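Example S7 (C-alpha cells).
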C-alpha cells in the first residue's frame, strides 16, 4: 500500500465515524489496513483541515482526546457538543 493510499484509507475510515462516537488512532490504523501505523494516523489527522473529515473523533487509546490541529480545548468542546465521551 502506498503512502497516499494509506492516507486515503485513513480519511475514509475517519469520515465514517458517526457523530457522538470516537475511534482510537490504533483502531483507525487497523481499519485502514496497517495496525502498526497509529502514529501515522496522528500525523494525517494533524494536517487535516477538511471539515468533512471529523478528525476530532479520533482519540488516544487511554480515552483522552489527544492533540488537535485546532487546539485540544476545541477538540474537547466538539466531542462534548456531539455527546461523545471525553476522558
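Recovered sequence:
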Amino acid at each position: 500500500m502506498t503512502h497516499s493510499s494509506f492516507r486515503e484509507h485513513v480519511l475514509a475510515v475517519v469520515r465514517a465515524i458517526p457523530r457522538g462516537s470516537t475511534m482510537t488512532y490504533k483502531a483507525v490504523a487497523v481499519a485502514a489496513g496497517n495496525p502498526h501505523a497509529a502514529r501515522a494516523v496522528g500525523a494525517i489527522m494533524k494536517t487535516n483541515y477538511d471539515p468533512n473529515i471529523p478528525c476530532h473523533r479520533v482519540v488516544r487509546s487511554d480515552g483522552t482526546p489527544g492533540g488537535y490541529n485546532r487546539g485540544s480545548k476545541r477538540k474537547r468542546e466538539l466531542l462534548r457538543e456531539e455527546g461523545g465521551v471525553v476522558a
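Notes on this example. The mean pLDDT is 91.
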